[in-house]
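Risk register update: the risk of archive-format incompatibility is retired. Evidence:
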Amino acid sequence: MYNTQPNDIYLTDFAKPVLSDVEKQTLAGTPEVPLTEAAILGAAQGATGLSDFGTDDFRERLALWVRGFDGDKGLGPLGRAMAFESMVRFATNRLRIEDIIKRHPEILDVELPKPIIVSGLPRSGTTHLVNLLATHPQLRSMQLWESNEPVPKPDEMNWESSDANPRYRRSNEIWHVWNNVMEHWSAMHEWAPGHVHEEVELQCFDFSSYYIDWMAPQPEWDKYYFAHDQAPHYAYARKVTQVMTWLHGPNRWVMKSPQNMENLPALLKVYPDATVVITHRDPIAVLQSSITLMAYADRLRRSEIDLPALANYWFDRIERLMRACVRDRDALPQGQVMDVMFQEYMADERGTYARVCQTAGLDVPADAQARLDQYLHDNPRGRLGRVVYDLKGQFGVDIAALRERFQFYYERFPVARETALGE
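Archived output:
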């Protein structure tokens, strides 16, 4: 690693990681896990004392996930353990969701009027924008600790304060461990427990999401995913949102997920009165950030690292997102959709916030403006360091060819081209 500026981080060991002592200790302490459907569901049942997973159609999808992770010979012990623990958590949450609805069927009558749903390419400002919007006092959002455990354990139902909430504390402990092991993770993607998180996690409880693409390449799953309507899984996530609203309101939500970009018809089918905000950014900037993030995590997750294969996988995956958006964008109700260009958003964050609120029919009183100003003051860009991305130097990518490949997106949306290193 070398610094080009005092606050810049340039990583050079993606292909052959030079592990710190903490990273080595973490890998040495990783247990072997059984990547089987029975082991995953059994662990979830043991953790909760529950057995009713609801409808069984999720098992077909879970089996694909398990087969994908287990068949990935380049996935190391920590990568396998992380996959196992994630799937156990998803199954555990599903058990608790089905249980609380069984005991309180009125949850399914909870209304979720006129949500604001942020979409857009990964690394295009969606997280920052949803955190800005979440400062509005009339909007409900989902923080990371809540997405990790939407339903409290039975003896934790009355905790609401973030610093005392056991769910928050558990998330915070994981966050501190991860940051201690992965020195530069926060600079790439802040994942603090109080940070507003994306609802794509909720679809994982129905075992249908693009989330697992971020854990390991899943070519078999991707074929299945794209061949099936995702509306039922958006509906399942909506059910989870009803649970969280019933536990703690208000009921007008602001949510976000890049996955929405390739599922706009399904999104509007489940949330027909939503205001959809789509962020757009130069796909070269998106890809160099996304691929670097993945390569950095793979230093611990994978025993075999193939940087060209990683890059090509994400070129295809991001292109699918963009092509689906180009295909479906104009079919959306025009009064309910707003395009946000990254360069304009970064130049005028407050103005973008105001325009989104106006499109959604949401007033911005003085207290809302004050909360927005405080958030921007407390969270300046780059405060945790700035990672220098280098697609050409680190991954051997022909950037000119990539720009030509994505010309269809440049022609449809007026994103500013961001100069890449070596271009």
